[in-house]
Amino acid sequence: MICWAQADVYGWLRAAAQGSHAPGGALVRVHVGGVEEWRDLPDWPPPGCSPTAWHLHAEGRLATTPAPNGSPPNRYRYDPAQPTPSVGGAVENLDGTAGAKDNRRLEQRADVLTYNSDVLDADLEMIGPVTAAITLHATLEHVDVFVRLCDVHANGRSVNLCDGIRRLRPIDSPLDANRTRTVSVDLTGVAHRFRAGHRLRVQVRPPAVDDLARSVPRPGRRADGRRHSPERVPAVENPPRVRRRGGAGQGSGARDRPGRPAHRPGRCGPGPTH
Length: 274
Fold this sequence. Notes:
By secondary structure, the chain is mainly beta. It has one domain (2-256): Jelly Rolls (Sandwich), CATH 2.60.120.260. The chain is built from two helices and 15 strands. Strands 3, 4, 5, 7, 10, 12, 13 and 14 form an eight-stranded antiparallel sheet that branches. The protein has a four-stranded antiparallel sheet with strand order 6-11-8-9, with no helix packed on it. The longest helix has 17 residues, at 2-18. It is globular and about 55 Å long. The two termini are 19 Å apart.
């Protein structure tokens, strides 16, 4: 499997360097988690598809309907002396800790907020870029936000699919009168089929040390962060391709072919990477 993957990557790099067509001729090839298959696409995002917004609700729900007006915020406290640990993801290491991992222990921490969809009654396939719009208030001017999409299996196993980080400074995303701001977080992309009986889960938390260098406040201060006014914006925008059908879940990846604009591949998952 590793040798085959290396041959495929080398073929792509050779074609990019020589300005020729990639092996197979397709501009984009993605690994679709959940069905563990490779799929050739004419472009990225897949043409002819429209995005779907998923909203964070104060009680920890994730739904395609907006949260009601007046919903209370969810809160977490970040302590740089006890930073959030890293679990899986698109980190550059060869020790087996990268990629799709079980996030259940991480999600039990008080500094990790989770939002869960209802149990799916049919398979749900997502292929395309993922972005999150998070409205937040923080006690400090410098704050980091990490957002992750997971596939929760019927046995409770929570497997990361894609994630993104945003470091905020005083000059970024101006505060409103309530000292809140809405920020966009790029989760790169996903190519995955959620099986019937599974759930979608979104994590909102501080980044781990392996993800981003710690943002350390002045001595004696901790950063209190909270997701604020959930009714104001859609929290997570799904890939342009959202399709339901009956039938199987884990991991994702997307890769460009030479001859098209550059695209960041999906992060995490057993395929080449969300």
